[in-house]
Backbone:
């Protein structure tokens, strides 16, 4: 077995031990093992490029490799700006996170622009990623969403950080008027959860309805996923959410799933 594989398997074993037997290992030791595991995944990911794939008839395969060079991205969110945005007057804007081989350390929001919705690029002078990976190699950023208003683009995303005996899960917002310079992240909401309950504040999104801003997100409780809606006053905070009732959902989406909090009688 190659030395790199031996190193990986030994690190994996240490990670499993420190994760499954929390009381047997100090927080400092558990954190150190997790950092080494994430660093190892990062180093391996740099050489793990995915070859191009074909797509179905009638579909266009988007090249998003400029985000990480690894060819695997998730959580795309696209908005259309008729008047164009930034110096390039880009009509299509996308937020996305690289996620090669499910390595969470790469999952940091990127911002892309396009004139036609097919050919995408980083804005000239823009940084990649927009949200930097955690400096201590633990935790991750995910679930980006975009909101546009009065010439400003807002990037909403979810951060998960590992702290002593818990997870700190937050939703942040950043803003830009050119896609190049971004404001510092501002926390909209933060929750301190047990380490075995990370499925909260997932897939956040923001809209303005009338004079108010609202945020939607997904929470998980005992294996059941619920969509929640909360007010988001002046895009500065998110209040406690209430469960959303979904009506008139297509039958094929309702059948055989417990994801939705409520559906029609036909479901």
Residues:
């Amino acid at each position: 077995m190659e030395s790199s594989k031996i190193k990986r398997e030994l690190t994996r074993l240490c990670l499993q031990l420190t994760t499954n037997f929390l009381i047997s290992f100090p927080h400092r030791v558990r954190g150190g093992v997790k950092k080494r595991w994430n660093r190892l995944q990062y180093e391996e990911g740099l050489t793990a490029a995915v070859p191009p794939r074909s797509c179905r008839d009638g579909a266009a395969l988007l090249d998003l490799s400029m985000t990480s060079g690894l060819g695997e991205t998730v959580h795309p969110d696209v908005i259309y700006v008729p008047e164009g945005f930034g110096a390039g007057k880009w009509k299509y804007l996308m937020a996305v996170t690289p996620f090669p081989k499910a390595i969470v350390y790469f999952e940091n929001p990127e911002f892309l622009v396009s004139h036609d919705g097919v050919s995408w690029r980083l804005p000239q002078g823009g940084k990649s990623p927009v949200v930097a990976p955690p400096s201590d190699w633990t935790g991750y950023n995910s679930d980006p969403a975009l909101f546009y208003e009065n010439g400003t683009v807002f990037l909403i995303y979810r951060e998960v950080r590992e702290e002593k005996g818990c997870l700190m899960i937050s939703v942040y917002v950043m803003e830009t008027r050119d896609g190049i310079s971004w404001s510092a992240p501002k926390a909209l909401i933060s929750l301190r959860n047990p380490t075995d309950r990370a499925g909260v504040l997932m897939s956040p999104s923001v809209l303005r309805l009338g004079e108010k801003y609202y945020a939607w997100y997904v929470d998980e409780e005992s294996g059941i996923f619920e969509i929640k809606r909360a007010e988001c006053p002046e895009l500065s905070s998110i209040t406690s959410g209430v469960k959303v009732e979904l009506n008139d959902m297509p039958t094929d989406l309702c059948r055989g799933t417990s994801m939705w909090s409520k559906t029609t009688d036909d479901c």
